[in-house]
Amino acid sequence: MLMMYLNLVDTPEEKSKFKQLYDKYRNLMFFCAKEILKDDGLAEDAVQEALIKLTKYLKKINEVECHKTKHFIVIIVESASKDIYRREKRQKSISWEEIGENYDFPQAERVEAVSELTDVERAIMELPGEYRKIFRMKYVWGYSNQEIGELLGIRQSALRQRIARGKKILQDILDEMEVDTHG
Amino acid sequence: MGKIRVDDEFLYRHMPGLEEKLVRAYPDDSELAHEFSESFEKAMEKYLKRVRQKEKYGVPIRNGSRIAAAFALIITSAVVVSFRTDALSMERIRMKLYEYTQVVREKETEKRYYATKEKIGEFVPLYPAYIPDGYKLMIQDEDETFLFLSYERSEYDGLIIDQEQVKDGMAVGEDNEYVREEKTKILGYEGKICYKENGVIHIWWESEDTLYCVGADSLDKEELLKICESLKPKK
Known about the structure:
The structure holds 2 protein chains of 2 kinds. By secondary structure, chain A is mostly helical.
């Protein structure tokens, strides 16, 4: 199966990188996809689509084993999963748990199980996932607005609105929690 | 002690610390074990047949949710237009300082811009001299190539003025799901007024090197045009 993907990439360096990414992250991709889609078959579909998308971005990935790359892989598979989620929701009249659209991995319960959060961090985790995901990409990993828009499939004007709205929502959460500058 | 203000500086300060904790929450290898199915491998063979088309037409494949799509043809040697055959039409348009390719799909029109000159001039942001009563400026976000203004009259009643200088390779997706469009002129440039079914109106236009979009939840066409025509550079 791996050889099929390798035909999609161009240079020997990219093939080697792709193989490393595939070996390292395919199970994590399946794990994330299944958290959104709750189904093994659909999760595998999402992994396939994500791996194909990934070939487009190989030149932008420097190190295979680093947190930024891991985060990037998760974004790609989340995006592929949400495309499938929306397609399934349109095509089938079944009620899907409304987790897909607002999903941002990892979820709050997982985080709180392993780390103690400050008040500010707790407030950020209360943000809807779509805003937190954009904030992580912009304020941690340094993606430009253009890159964020392209990866998440959002127009620039809509992205700016989301950033602005996310800040406002977070402000409201912090005000309600009465968190001050020492929080 | 003081009230927190959520701005860029605040987020740059707090997000990295949270991100470290998020990374610690990723599952370890024992949670991740999965054996992929035989059907997974077979499905990938189908994708590869489509990928071979890449060699035949010499176009890159844009792979998104529509894996079943076939491929669009190159229409000029210099410009690759589209990667999906859900395109309803495509054309290449030349303007003064840039050219763009336009692909119309069912739900969006994708425009991809290419600078025809090595260096485009400085971006000159425009500010509205007129804003209807009750609207307050909530967000002003800008850098040397764009200005984004967001006003609100209430939580669900907003107005945005968005302007961005064209950059080489920039792709813009315009919403196609309008029920009606009217051609118009804004500040001397060709533009269009677009109506959505829910009453939202967007006005789009382009100058020699900048894209503009003004939209509002509840303002009518006349008010929006008045806002657009009031746009001026800061003195």
